[in-house]
């Protein structure tokens, strides 16, 4: 999957001061001195993580922002994507003068482990065999993804992130960062997310996995070695998931019952309706940029996510630190029409943070755009991000507009 | 699909008076004298419809209730199902002394055309070739299903149905009955339904169809002639659909994040969670009782359903009759946690009926059971059905407990 992605610099071993915006596709080998132990017990050593950086790390390395991507996202946050040629998935939010201001912050985003855009994952070569891992790749968790990110910031010499921010599965990683490394995170912005994957969430993921596994070209996960691709199954998985990213109202507004380039229905199984054509397009284009096994692994990581379960079933306990509340400042954001990660899930996190008297604010943004709102033009949401970042920057003593470098 | 279903009497040509409860699997050949013209323009002649009857038709044939089944339902409403061995899908509602009281009413339910339980459909033999139709079967609509039902009651000598009742796609048929044949329906009970399929509804159906068509064993619809079955694709379609039948709350209550016969997760792709195991079971058992092409045809019929579109885009116009309101009495029921056919859709029908000053009542039943509530133990809902039926029976002059026969 990664062969077509040009590296815009060799694996990063240089000092990170002075990075300019646009180093969006770097590689680093982590776990060299000491292997990283995964939740499943397997140890990864000498594994690759792909990442991008935007902006400049200041002298005291206090302006680093970790952006965590969602299920099918990657580290091309703000630059043009090398495969699709489109702007990065969060270019509306991350860039010079934008809410996550790369004139002020040093933004880091790494492709999650288990992914397929350069970080170690099931499509990468297994050193033991010289062939793609396939299902021999160990099952990873959200905590494992964050462990790798922690090694990355260690590598970059950053002791404490100014902020960790992300939506959906990115938001899970934000929560996990705050819980696993509370002293390494100043502020946390979990967006459209939850502290656990619900039964309905798991159910939708299971449908996607079964769609992939039902495709004979999946070859029990060994398709890369057999020079096949389970494109049909992966497309169906994407179509099913895509519906969950949109609200019923958004689908109605965008498509309603409008027909596709025709005046009347065809009495057949072509894409009569625009919404059918749109969904098929989502499925077809997805398979060009995503690995089916990565889809299995990453959905599984989300299913396993349950912060409370790791803390005696009490979510608030996840946010206790040295006899008091977590030192991390939180701002939770949900979207009113998001039925995949509904506001109730964000509220549960807020209640848990309140229960330990942590520093937390919460905004439910009114929108009909559904779960995908965190990726879309949503001015109120962007104001929330900017406001929280600005306030925390002031508190952290970060001056504005690169002044820290002067 | 139908070979294993025993007929419990020869195709019904006898007089219908005196039918006893339990004649749940009859056959009739319709369209013999005159072919039935489908919306797509194709004419069907001499086609089979499978149906069941329960209770006794009274002397003036005024106590007939047409029950319309949902997507994957059939005519085994109240008897034991010959394939699954389980009680009929609405045995809670239909039977002696039950809300749709077979001591009082003569209940008829026919397998929809396009189905796979005995009525003509894509799995049946094409007279032109002597082989299963497959995709040569014409695409049918909800109105076509109701046309066939109208021919059935003509055959049974019934001029006017006392009531037409059904949920989900059954409710679409109820609405279509009232619009197509307002003088042949005394009362209508559309449950958990809508006057049109929404963009989200179409999207979910399209995912199911694509899952079936992605299965190589679908063979472009010709699997029966090639002795294959697209079981994997059909199972995925069923799994995706099944999620939409339940509310998030119901899934949480039933399964939550409970693990399946284990203490900890397996770090693999087996069904770790009970909800995964449940969904897989839904998929696997479905393929034993349903034909994949029928699934395509029936979902398509639902997608095409749009009562307003046939009436200049104004739903109220569908309910005008001879310069006034429809003579049909309506009772609409929705379920508060049904997100597939939400209350707003029922309200839209109620508003349209109000706009023409029709006789309509409406109940939103508070439940967390989601769309499937119409098939489940839901006492308030059952009271609504009983109350409306009793009130209409009084108005219609139907005496109680078989008194009409005395």
Describe the protein's topology.
Two copies of one chain form a homodimer.
Chain A lengths: L22 E8 L5 E2 L5 E2 L2 E8 L9 E5 L25 E2 L4 E2 L4 E5 L14 E2 L4 E2 L9 H14 L5 E7 L1 H12 L4 E7 L7 H16 L16 H15 L2 H7 L19 H16 L2 H13 L15 E2 L2 E2 L3 E7 L7 H13 L3 E7 L13 H18 L10
Parallel strand pairs in A: 5-8, 5-11, 6-7, 11-12, 12-15, 15-16
Antiparallel strand pairs in A: 1-4, 2-3, 4-8, 9-10, 13-14
Helix pairs in contact in A: 1-2, 3-4, 3-7, 4-6
Characterize the largest beta sheet of chain A: strand count, sense, and whether it forms a barrel: 8 strands, mixed
CATH architecture descriptor name of the largest domain in chain A = 3-Layer(aba) Sandwich
Strand content of chain A: 15-25%
- Looking at the chains present, what oligomeric state does this protein adopt? homodimer
Largest interface: A-B, 58 and 58 residues
How many domain regions of chain A?
2
Let me know the average pLDDT of chain A: 92
Class inferred from helices and paired strands of chain A: alpha/beta
Short key terms for the protein model shown above:
alpha/beta, two-stranded antiparallel ribbon, 31% helix, transferase (chains A, B), 406 residues, homodimer, Rossmann fold, eight-stranded mixed β-sheet, AB_hydrolase_1 (chains A, B), Rna Polymerase Sigma Factor, Chain: A, HAT_MetX-like (chains A, B), cytoplasm (chains A, B), 2 domains, 9 helices
């Amino acid at each position: 999957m990664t062969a077509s992605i040009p590296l815009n610099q060799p694996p990063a071993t240089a000092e990170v001061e002075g990075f300019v915006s646009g180093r969006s596709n770097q590689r680093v080998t982590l776990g060299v001195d000491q292997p990283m132990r995964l939740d499943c017990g397997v140890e990864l050593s000498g594994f690759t993580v792909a990442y991008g950086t935007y902006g400049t790390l200041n002298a005291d390395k206090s302006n680093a922002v970790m952006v965590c991507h969602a299920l099918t996202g990657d580290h091309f946050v703000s630059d043009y994507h090398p495969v699709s040629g489109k702007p990065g998935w969060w270019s509306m939010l991350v860039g010079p003068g934008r809410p996550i201001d790369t004139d002020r912050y040093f933004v880091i985003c790494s492709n999650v482990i288990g992914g397929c855009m350069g970080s170690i994952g099931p499509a990468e070569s297994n050193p033991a065999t010289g062939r793609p891992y396939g299902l021999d790749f160990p099952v990873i968790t959200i905590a494992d993804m964050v462990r790798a990110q922690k090694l990355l910031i260690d590598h970059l010499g950053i002791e404490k992130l100014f902020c960790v921010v992300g939506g959906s599965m990115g938001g899970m990683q934000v929560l996990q960062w705050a819980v696993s490394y509370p002293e390494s995170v100043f502020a946390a912005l979990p967006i459209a997310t939850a502290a656990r994957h619900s039964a309905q969430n798991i159910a939708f993921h299971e449908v996607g996995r079964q769609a992939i596994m039902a495709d004979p070209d999946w070859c029990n996960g060994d398709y890369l070695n057999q020079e096949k691709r389970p494109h049909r199954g992966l497309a169906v998985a994407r179509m099913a998931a895509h519906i969950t990213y949109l609200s019923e109202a958004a689908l109605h507004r965008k498509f309603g019952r409008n027909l596709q380039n025709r005046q009347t229905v065809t009495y057949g199984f072509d894409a009569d309706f625009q919404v059918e054509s749109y969904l098929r397009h989502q499925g077809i284009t997805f398979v060009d940029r995503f690995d089916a096994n990565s889809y299995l692994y990453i959905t599984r990581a989300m299913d396993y996510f349950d912060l409370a379960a790791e803390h005696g079933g009490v979510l608030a306990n996840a946010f206790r630190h040295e006899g008091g509340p977590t030192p991390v400042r939180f701002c939770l954001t949900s979207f009113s029409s998001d039925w995949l990660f509904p506001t109730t899930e964000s509220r549960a996190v807020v209640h848990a943070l309140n229960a330990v008297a942590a520093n937390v604010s919460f905004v439910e943004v009114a929108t009909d755009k559904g779960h995908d709102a965190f990726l879309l033009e949503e001015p109120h949401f962007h104001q929330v991000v900017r406001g929280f970042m600005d306030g925390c920057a002031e508190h952290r003593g970060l001056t504005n507009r690169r002044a820290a470098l002067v």
